[in-house]
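Protocol step 4 of 6: structure prediction from sequence.
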Amino acid sequence: MIGASDTRQLGMTLPELIVAISVTVVISTVIVNFMIDNIRTSSAQSARQSLLGSARITLDKVTNDIRHSAAADDNNRWNDPHSPGAPGNQLSWQSNANTLVLATAAKNTSGDIIFDDPSNYITAKNNYVYFVQNGILYKRIIASPVANNAAKTTCPEASSSPSCPKDTVVVRDVKSFSVAYINADNTSVTPSSARAVELTLTLEDKVFGESVNASYKTRMVFRNG
């Protein structure tokens, strides 16, 4: 027969059980927190890589327009009823530290360049305006009034119509978009004197309630001057 003292040795006392449960809870908490930290870190890294890829693709699109442009204009050369100073000043888009106004050759529907002065190879120019509003990078086209121009002036979405399509959304989640204007001596100059444009784009997202951002910088020379 097993005595009373032997029976007590086969199980755990209440204090021992409490200690065992407490140790298990602590170990489980440590393991869960470790897993959560790993998931948070992995998710942040993944989000950062995704943002970096988006920033690179976005600036590739913008630099492609720069490459096919003649210059940056100090202001838009054609009236835009939705420009920042409109209606009083419809020529109020300005190339500056966060807005880029490009002068790009106008083309007809066949893709042929339209010349204002064919004998001197002076082309008619549209304006492409890159600007940020409410965390979105937009591209607006302000078309030259030259005959047979295939380009159409675009508008804010709220004012868009068949005759004035909405501005292109280039990328969302923009934290900052900066523009620098550089000459052949690698010196900062006014926009209209620039030989090249340097762009920096920073995108931002939220992961587990924390901000994650990624930046990409590139430079492109005007090649259609």
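Step 5 (inspection) to follow. The chain has two helices and ten strands.
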